[in-house]
């Protein structure tokens, strides 16, 4: 079971929008039974980033963890969304 964290600056607004889109994508692509979803804000999770298999963030994260984070802005703008889904799929299948 993979642990996927969706985070934003406050843990409320944009992460909620992204969480809905991620849930829909997981359901449509047959991954929902293999993923546990979490939602939070960057300040609470940055020191626990290694607790998650996949992290999607809609806000800037420290450089030290950028390689572990998928930037979630395409889920808000629609620009680059296919690349985001491809990266998520690759991480889910590791």
Summarize this structure as a short list of keywords or feature phrases:
alpha/beta; 94 residues; single chain
Cα-based radius of gyration, to the nearest Å: 12 Å
- SSE-based structural type: alpha/beta
Shape: globular
For the record, give the distance between the C-alpha atoms at the N and C termini, rounded to a whole number: 12 Å
User: What string, H for helix and E for strand, traces the elements in order?
Assistant: EHEHEEHH
Q: DSSP strand (E) fraction?
A: 15-25%
Provide the helix percentage. 25-40%
Number of strands: 4
Main sheet summary? 4 strands, parallel
Number of helices: 4
Q: Give the overall average pLDDT.
A: 94
Tell me what you see in this structure.
There is one protein chain. With 94 residues, the protein is an alpha/beta fold. Helices cover 38% and strands 22% of the residues. It has helices spanning 13-28, 42-45, 74-77, 81-92, and strands at 2-8, 35-41, 54-57, 69-71. The chain has a 4-stranded parallel sheet. It starts with a strand and ends with a helix.
């Amino acid at each position: 079971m993979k642990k996927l964290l969706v985070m934003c600056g406050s843990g409320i607004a944009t992460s909620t929008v992204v969480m809905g889109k991620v849930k829909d994508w997981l359901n449509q692509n047959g991954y929902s039974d293999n993923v546990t979803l979490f939602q939070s804000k960057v300040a609470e999770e940055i020191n626990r980033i290694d607790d998650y298999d996949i992290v999607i963030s809609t806000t800037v994260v420290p450089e030290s963890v950028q390689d572990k984070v998928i930037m979630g802005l395409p889920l808000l703008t629609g620009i680059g969304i296919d690349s985001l889904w491809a990266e998520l799929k690759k991480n889910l299948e590791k």
